[in-house]
Amino acid sequence: MSGAVVIGAGPGIGQAVARRFAREGLPIALIARSDETLAAAAEAVAPTGVPVVTAAADSTDENALREALDRAAGELGPPDVVVYNAAVIQADTPGELSVRAHLDAWAVNVVGALTAAAHVAPGMAQRGGGSFIVTGGMPEPKPQYVSLSLGKAGVRTLVTLLDQTYGSSGVHVASVTVCGPVAPGTAFDPDDIAEHYWRLHTQPRDRWESEALHTGLTVHDGERS
Q1: How would you class 108 by CB atoms within 10 Å of its CB: exposed for 0-12, middle for 13-18, buried for 19 or more?
Q2: Would you say residue 223 has pLDDT above 60?
Q3: Where are the alpha helices (DSSP H) in 5-111?
Q4: Angle at 100 between CA 99 and CA 101, to 5 degrees
Q5: What is the DSSP string of 107-176?
Q6: The domain containing residue 89 runs over which residues?
Q7: Within 10 A of 50 (CB to CB), how many other CB atoms are there?
Q8: How many helices (H) and strands (E) does the chain have?
Q9: Residue 58 near residue 64, CB atoms below 8 Å
Q10: Residues paired with 194 in a beta bridge
Q11: Is the model's pLDDT at 216 over the cut of 90?
């Protein structure tokens, strides 16, 4: 196994997903903006004993993100799974943000995922297998979270487009939609949410799902039509 890459490896879902895959023995590559975040994530994964690679990159910096992915592949081999977990989570109402602020949020929430997928999915398709999983949210748009609602709607469309492009070649593209605030010890515990990512990655191809919905009460899975 050549490992898992987690883009957006901050506290919460990012670290939880990295730990979940590491427990299965997969080497882990962690990508985040700051060295402090990377150090904390590496420390969280360390008890599993798997190899860990860290690379600092802003998901909106196309060249830096591609270089970080190349570094991970150079040290661990082509990834089995890439998780895109970067997002701008903020409250904003219609007309509150400037155009620049909306573009900045969109760049993190959607375009960074597209950059990562365009870099790794062709190789997965050539090898005939791999997973690309994006953290989603906002199952229903909310006017008090305009930029996030738009971004997560964009993620759903992106997952569909990537599946249409790479799915037939064996690349499982899916999202994990989280329907509430993530916090340890709650119904939205990141360790519970991380289980969805592992399950999606290990699904047999004839049972692939395009979305796992974490409501905090029950688990609803979107079967691929």
Answers
A1: buried
A2: no
A3: 13-23, 35-45, 62-76, 99-106
A4: 90
A5: IIIIIHHHHHHHHHHHHHHHHT-EEEEEEEE-SS--TTBHHHHHHHHHHHHHHHHHHHHHGGGTEEEEEE
A6: 4-223
A7: 21
A8: 7, 8
A9: yes
A10: none
A11: no
pLDDT of residue 225: 27
The two three-digit tokens of residue 212, written as one number: 């796992």
- Structure tokens belonging to residue 83: 């998780």
Domains held by the chain: number = 1
Per-residue pLDDT of 49-108, as tens digits, reads: 999 999 999 999 999 999 999 999 999 999 999 999 999 999 999 999 999 999 999 999
Residue entry with tokens 């990655």: 201
Residue 191 identity (one-letter amino acid)? D
**Pairwise CA distance, residues 49 & 135, whole Å:** 26
- Buried residues in 162-172 as b, exposed as e (16+ CB within 10 A): bbebbbeeebb
Structure tokens at 109: 């929430």
222: buried, middle or exposed (CB in 10 Å: 19+, 13-18, 0-12)?
middle
Q: What is the CATH number of the domain that holds 160?
A: 3.40.50.720
